[in-house]
Amino acid sequence: MKSCKILRYGAVCGLAALAAVGCSVDDAETIRVRELTAAEHELFVPASGGTAQIQLYSNGRVRVEALNDIGGWASVDRSEFDGDRMVSVTFTENDSFRRMAKLRFVLDGGTRADTVCVKQYGVVPSLECPAPYKAIRGSVETFTQFEIDTNIPLGDFAVATAYVGPTRDWIRSVQPEQGMLVVDTKPNPGDDVCKAVVNLSYVDGWEETFSANLYITQADKDDEFGREVSFADVRALATAEGTAVDEDILIEGIVVSDFHSKNMEVNPSVSYDKVDVTVNDCTAYLESPDGRYGFRLRFDTPEDNVLARGTRLSLSLSGTVLTREENPERYTISSLVGENMVESAAGEAIPVKQRRISELTDDDVYTFVSLENTEFLFKEGSYANVYENYSLSSDVNASQTGNNNRMDGWASLLMDDAGNSIYAPVNMLCLWRRSGQGVPQGTGTTHGIVVHNELPRYGNVGRYQIRVLDESGFGMEWAGESAYTEFAEWDGNPHKYSFGTYAKFNSRYAYNRLESITPSDDISSGKTVPNAELFCENHVETTAAEAWPIAGTGNYNNPEVGSLGTSLTCKAYFVKAGVKGWYRWEGNEVVGYNGLRMEFSTASLNGSHMLLGFSFAAGTISATTSKTYPAHWCVEYSVDGGQSYTLCPSAATGADYVHLRSLPWWDASLAGNRYNTCSSAGIGLTDHLFRLPAEVFGRERVMVRIRPYDKVMTVLPLVWNGDTETAEISAATTYDNQLRWGVITLRYR
User: Fold this and answer.
1) Could you tell me which CATH class the domain 485-667+682-708+737-748 is placed in?
2) Are 283 and 265 in contact (CB under 8 A)?
3) Over the stretch 615-666, which tens digit does the pLDDT of each residue have?
4) Contact at 8 Å (CB) between 687 and 607?
5) Three-state DSSP class for residue 196
6) Which one is the CATH code of 355-476: 2.60.40, 1.10.10, 2.40.50, 1.10.490?
């Protein structure tokens, strides 16, 4: 018997063609496969009305059914048809909420069916309550009004009431009245505070749910909610281990954060390729009414945190945990749920706290502060200059691969006219971080919350950082001038510098040399007298071709406006040399250091201070080139021809050295071990600033070096969050390393 076994209709040939040609399969049975499928199961159509096409594939007769009430706004051009068919759906104009027609296509009396949802755009429902927390008296019956900001008729909401605690049924009714939701409550005859949550929910035409919780706290029979305490009292209760609060105590403050912001807190890496993005959404900041103190609020879930900026909040601490941390001294209230919010009122003015960077104290942590006379150290690129392919996936990250979520957030360095600096972290889910317009070029006031964040992929970021709520927090002039005069700069800009594989050799020093020219000079102008010269003192040969190791290479810091991925036009200074060449040896002992050395004259200059800024990283996006390099680097200067050097602390951290971080890499196998990108590997070049004193002015020869601070070396940990700074240099160390400097700049006032 000639027959054919059909696995999928339409995959190779049609039924008619098979019948005409036939096919022979020994001992096979004739099987009629019943087929019905739609090419797409969701169609999105415009609000303006029109016609859309649904492609159906079938080998039988099909009946069309509507699974929901479409009220005549959508119709199909046929109710039944045979075989493959393009079905036309006509829909009218929609000036109301989004809506959907669910169409089911049924084959041969119900043997198979498939559903297509035609979703028409329209008004998107919105729902928000400006003050969702109400405190009411307990001694009398009350009628409590909640203002509801919504475009949904209040009568269309489903209302559900949940009681917190043993007392039930003290809410008589919940009714909409003139744009308000009115809650009628019975008196409280007992000694306990009563709590309830009223949930409003609405399912729109696309079957998406919009909901909000309203929280009611009813006082006891004597109209008491608990003991009111001050911010200072709460701070005194907090401990390093965490103090669990088991009594009704209340504080009152002003919310200075905004639950809509994606820049409230560090979203930590929980593995080499995963970030917990809920931490930001669970965090808020509460400031005392006088602006003196602040608390970090940590909610159990993002849904519990609906605190808008400028809300005056009465907060119950019952059931929470109070924690004190040191260096800097700071306080967190955790285990918060919505029921802890007793009463709120929107529209409160935020206390004005004007500060200089140098004036910040521990009392300012978790408060809203305006930092005067600030500007960006590096004004190229975006608010988070990183190698995007390894950052947290977002709408502005072009690389949406599954394991690129190495880190959420990077930090730019701000400075003021006194030479002080502070880091400003910006999270990757802040979609304004790379808008295509760059960062402000001038000076101004930065407004944000003073925090202490640990950024292990960045290194030490100082005692304080400032987090803006949104881009407007950077209040500098967009086209303004810097408070500093540029003296010399090496920024890898090919318009200003010309070098091949390796920079030109200066026989006078037997090291590499790069000459700095002023920004107004084009390299084609033939300028021969540099502002300053940059030398690499590491002259240990690795190969003949790399004897003098400064070269130009990819920046990995994306300094071009709007750039994603690797920077191609703006280069970094690339140094490939032996690790032990950064050190001076006598036998097996380190007796000195080599580094990048700048030389220049300040004989004609006067000023209060000079700044050295730079960005750097190790490696080439490879575990092989990231495994061994000096971990700690410092800056020192000399005004006596190099006979003696003076160490300069970091202007941002006050530390004697900064951490050099490796760039990330894909997981790799080395010497039989599998290495994932470790927790100390960054996703870009880190920014650093050092302040040179007035002593460097009026000198014929000034020397400044960036060099290893000590003998600490890095290793690749076997676990992603292991310590990398565990090795120490020795005379037997034979590894090469690859370091890159994105920008090196000298500026003065």
Assistant:
1) mainly beta
2) yes
3) 999 988 888 888 899 999 999 999 999 999 999 999 999 999 999 999 988 8
4) no
5) strand
6) 2.40.50
